[in-house]
Amino acid sequence: MVAAVRTVLGDIAPGELGVCDAHDHLFLRSPMLPGQELDDRESAAERLRAFRALGGRAVVQWTPHGMGRGADALAELSRTTGAHVVAATGLHQAAHYPPELLDRIRDDLAALFVAELTEGIGTTGVRAGLIKVAGAFHTLDAHARLTMTAAAGAHHRTGAPIAVHLELGTAALDVLELLCGELGVPPHRVILGHLGRSPDGAVQREAARAGAFLAFDGPSRANHATDWRLPEELAELAGAGFTGQLLLGGDTTVPETPGMPHLLRRLRPRLEGVLGAEVMETVLVANPARAFAFEAPGA
């Protein structure tokens, strides 16, 4: 199997991905965010067009199964805007789902994830390109262990990358101990999200030394207290030799999030002033091409 990134329009060579928003949402619905749904197709198209106008080429949507990921709209949005879009399978924390949904699917999660990666999401024909799971605050609860075990099983069968929501940026090392230590997922197949929400440099460096990709995503109202630390965090990691493992995303979770355009219009030039254009090219282009590529199972 030749390495490829699985977009909603089909597999592409990793080098075709281009400037990538490595963690975002075009569509999202959760009982934890009542009245703040991302469910408008034209709004999603406007954000994609604005991102493309600023030089963006690809968006990786981390919205997993059962959270209104808009699979029936993603292919058309990709075609009409010219942006590559990667969709997700997987499950978020239990609080984001009605109990009856979890009761219906929990016994065969790995098979569900594999089906959405290889056959398609529902009847849309759109195949997922990554597996999204989530930890708990400073720990891994039973639901996290269940979903991560299923994600590892699906990874071993498909070679798909695994993206992890770290609750408030915590439990990164617990995640790696489970996924990579106990379940045998290669560390470079794991993408740790939200690390900037708990700006602990020692933990970030240890996760980087383990070999995982580190995703820094935002800004948003919820994380404004730590977002401003981003330039110094990335500078420290790059200076320690981990440039090749850094990713950036907008993480649009509610309509008011600055999101995709902000990533390139405001954040990129600020970071280029600190890190240099060459490092930012690596972070926005080369690293996503490796992080989101499928590998032959067992590679």
From TrEMBL:
Keyword Metal-binding carried by entry: yes
Residue list for modification N6-carboxylysine: K132
Residues annotated as transmembrane: none
InterPro entries cross-referenced by the UniProt entry: Metal_Hydrolase (IPR032466), Phosphotriesterase (IPR001559)
Domain of life: Bacteria
UniProt keyword terms in alphabetical order: Hydrolase, Metal-binding
Gene3D superfamilies to which the protein is assigned, alphabetical: Metal-dependent hydrolases
Listed Pfam families: PTE
Database matches in PANTHER family: PHOSPHOTRIESTERASE-RELATED, PHOSPHOTRIESTERASE-RELATED PROTEIN
Stated family: Belongs to the metallo-dependent hydrolases superfamily. Phosphotriesterase family.
Protein name: Phosphotriesterase
Native source species: Streptomyces drozdowiczii
